[in-house]
Every structure is written in C-alpha cells, then in structure tokens.
Amino acid sequence: MRKSNTSNYKNPHEKSNPLIHAGFIALAAGLLFRILLMSLIGEEGVGYFAPVNEIFVLCSLFITYGLAEATHSLVKYRIKREQYKSARRIFKCAALLALLFGVAAGFLILLGNRFIAEVLLLQRYSWLPVCVMAPAVIFISLTCLLRGYFQGTGTRIPTVHSLVLEQLLTIGLGTLLSAVLYRYGLKVAAVLHNNSLKAVYGATGAALGVLIAAVLSFLHLLLLYLLYRGTAKKQIYRDSSRNAEPKAYLYGSLLRSAVPYGLVTVLFGMTTLADQRMYYYYQNIFRDIFTEAGETVVDKVVVWGNYYGIYLSVIGFLTACGCLVPAKAIKAVSAAWLREEYRASRDQLTQTINNIVIVTVPLVFFTAVIAEPLAVIIGQGNSDITAELIPYGCAWILFGTVGYLCYGLLKQFDKVYQLLLLGVGSFLLHLAVLYLLLSQAGPTGMGINGVALSNVISVACACVGGLALVFRLMQYGQEWLRRCLRILVITLICAGVAGMIAILIKTALMPLLPEFVVILICFVIILAAYLLLMILLRALTESELEKIPGGTALLTLAKFMHLL
User: Which three-class secondary structure state does DSSP give residue 440?
Assistant: First the structure.
C-alpha cells in the first residue's frame, strides 16, 4: 500500500500541466517587461507606471481568482454530468457579472483619475496613464472569464495560448509605444520646462501597450469562443434535462464562490500599492528635513521605479521558480487526503516541504551573494539601491514559495474563511511593520529598505500562519514536524557555509573579472559546496534528488563532480 502511495506521488511531477508552465512564462514575461521599460523610459518612468500597472493587475487578479475560478468550477461540475444547458446559463450569468464589474471598475478609475493620482498614489501626473489603463480593466475582466469558461469545458489550450499571447503583445506593444511617447514627452518637457513629463508620457505609452494587448487578447478568445459555439449548441441539443436552474440561484452560486476568493486575492495583492502610498507619504514629510540637513535626496519616484522595476522583478522571478516545486504536488496532497489516505497525504506534504527547502534555501543565499554584481548588470544609475535591497528581500523566495503551497492547499480544501482571516491579519501586520520602519526620520528610518523588509516579515508571518492552519487541518503530528525541522536546520547550515565561501571568492574576484563571470563562478561554488555538504551530512540521497523537480539534472551534475 505504501509503495502504491509513493508511486501516486511521483505521477504529478511526471505529468505535464501546460497551465502551470504558461502561467510561469506569462509571469516571467511580465517581469521582463518591467526591466525592458527601465532601459527605455528610465527609473522615473517605471516609477510612474508601477502603481497604475498594479491597479490593473489587482483588478485582473480579483476576476481571475474570483469569478473566473468560480465559473471554471461550476461549468466543469455540470459538463461532467452532461448538464450543458446549465453550463451555458452559468457562463451567461458570469459574463454579465464580469461585464458589470469591468465597466464599473473602469468607469470609477476613469472618473476618479485625478483623485487616484493625487490622493491615493500621491503622483499628480499619474492621471494620464490612469485614464489610459481604465478601459483595459473591462477587457481583461472578460478575457479572464473566457479563460475560466474554456477550462471548465475541459480544454486548457485556449487559456495557455491566451496567457502567452497577452504577455508577448504587452512586451512588444508596451516597449514600442513607451519609447515613442517618451520621445514625444521629451519635447513636451522642453516646452513646459518640466522634466518629469517625459517619464509620464513614457509610462502612458506602456499603459497604452497594456490596453491594446488586453483588447487583442480578448478578441482572440472571443473568436475561439464563437468557433466553439457550434459544438456547444450540439451538446445542448443532446441535453435531455428539463428543469433548468433558475438564474437567481446561479448568480448566488457565482457570487458566493467568487467574492470571498476575490477578496483574499485583493488582500494579498494590494501590498505593493499600500507600500508605494506609505513610502511616498513619509518621503514627502522627510524630504525637507533631509534637504535642510544638507543631505542629497534621491527622488522618490526614481527610487520606487528601481524597487518595482528591478528588485521586485528579480525577487518575483526567483519566487516563481520556487513555486514550480509545489505547483503539481498541491492537488496530489489534497486528492490523497480526500481519498482518506491520510498518512500518504502527510508523507507527500512532508516531502513537498522538504523539496521546497532543499531548492529555495540555497537560492536565497545565492541571491544575497550575487546582489552586487547583479545590480551592476541590470541596474540603472542607482544600482547601489538594488544591491542593498536584494539582501533584505531574498528570504521572500523561501517564505513566498511555502505560502503558495499553503494557499493552494487551503483553497483545495475550500477553507476560504481561514484564508480571509489570514489575509486580513497579514495585511494589517504588514501595515504596522511598514509604519514602524518608515515613520522615523534620520538613521532609524529605513526608507525603501524598510519596504522590502516589511514585506519579508509579513510574508513570513503569513507563511507560518498558513502552515499552522494546514498542519492543524491535516492533523500533523510530531513525527512529520521533526522531519521538516531537521531538513530545514541542515539545509540552512549547508547553504550558509556554501554562501560564506562564495562571498569570500566574490570579494576577491569582483575587481578582476566581469560581473557575469563572477555570478557564474559563485553559482558553481555554492551548488558544489551545498551538494557536497548535504550528501556528507546524509541529508540528501539519490532517491530524494530524483523526487525534486529538476533533481535529475542535479543528480547528473553531482555524479559528474563525483559527489555521489
């Protein structure tokens, strides 16, 4: 029986899920887009684009994890039972809700552009990109709904293509239009004697690229839906059910499922907007104090552009890489638990947590070690800001990955109210920590470093709270806790020693070699030292390496270096 459970656990890692890969590609492309914008419109331009883009992302996440997920689940349930008429009615109800949300949100953003720019974002020139971004909310709402509907009907290909296509269009059109409008902004800035206008126009061009990409992505899925309509009608003709579900019941089902998860997503996703607003507020207060003291003050928009365009892109990409480890195991753990294979489910969860720790802990140390050369390679004029930020925030990779596992499991177990409480608690804690770190002027005030540190603290607390909920739900005993703590302690020791060795070598090589070569040498040193120490301490065996996603490559490398 135990052998069978182990076999079942391996299958999720062997089967390919195109949605996971497409989501990762889309996220990586979105982060790449920010870095490309840095080279075209500068840090100030990205600083103006950042909060506007976050508003768009927040609206799309609310629909994706709320209404689109609800539509996916309800349609899938009825399609399996060949209730095609009800599935069709659900889609029509969801489409109306998505349209109402998109139009209402877009209208409010457009109507309140000055209030959003001057009061909420503390950037009075941001009203222009806010106006351009407002209609994009309508189209992304409908696009996300269509993706959910197609997934509910059993086909993932349209969603996969749509995710990749949208990001490719965003990169292509966003970079092109931002460069064009940035050059136009240079002329406007020269005429009006306001140097910030070039960055504002560059950000507006990027927002226009996002808008056009959202429209084209919607039209792409709409065309596929129209082509699929014929097949859907044939299925409806075969549906012999007589009692159609009333629309009031369907609206209630959609809202009951969509609103709680949408709120959870908002709570976890709005931290960047809250960070930006609070950071700008205290920078405005302390700017005069620093100026009177004779200190040089870097413009807050420039600093935020560096934070959003480089730091969050690097940390976000590495966290997304870490999330690939538990992505396929979430359903396997929950499915085993629902089949009442409790011990197998706990074993699978323990193995998944161990895999996360084994992969992400050395990644955290490696990221901290290469912060300086990496900042020089991808940074702009203020690469020293990035070099300081990355060590503060690199622990986010570990906590964010474990938090993703906990969120996925709680969602699979339909523990939405626990997630809501966790989201509210972590958000309030984040605001409190951020206030403490930003509200002090002078040496005790941390500035942008405080923003990075507050995120790590709140994510760590949310991670601990999520693990506590999962462990309690799955009746996690001391046996499994000891196994998790053991691998964590050993991994921290091995990765820490490997990181110290890499720091010494990096310090010696930085004046002599190009930054890219230094990063490559540090990677090889950390990986070799880490694998060697883990094997010597018997914390990593061949069988455990094989279970880790990408472990086959590590196993081959370990054998090549004669570590196994």
Answer: coil
218, 257, 244: which is closest to 73 by C-alpha?
Answer: 257
Helix (H, G, I), strand (E, B) or coil at 441: coil
The angle formed by the CA atoms of residues 497, 503 and 509, to the nearest 5 degrees, is: 140
pLDDT for the residue numbered 486:
83
- DSSP reduced 3-state for 564: coil
Q: Are 210 and 136 in contact (CB under 8 A)?
A: yes
Residues of the chain with pLDDT under 50: 1-14, 292-296, 443-444
| Cβ(200)–Cβ(125) below 8 Å | yes
Of residues 95, 89, 92, 81, the one with CA closest to residue 238 = 81
pLDDT at 5: 43
Give the tokens for residue 362.
């050395």
Phi, psi angles (nearest 5°) of residue 452: -65, -45
Question: Per the structure block, which two tokens stand in for 53?
Answer: 């883009």
Residue with tokens 């990955």: 401
**CA diameter of the chain:** 80
Do residues 202 and 40 lie in contact, with contact meaning Cβ atoms separated by under 8 Å?
A: yes
Cα Rg for the chain, rounded, in angstroms? 25
Closest Cα partner for 537 from 504, 502, 495, 509? 495
Write phi, then psi, for 341 (nearest 5 degrees): -95, 70
Give me the amino acid identity at 264.
V
Residue 132 CA to residue 142 CA, distance in Å, equals 18
Where are any strands of DSSP class E within 136-185?
none
Q: Does residue 168 contact residue 159 with C-beta atoms inside 8 Å? A: no
Contact 129, 200 (CB under 8 A): yes
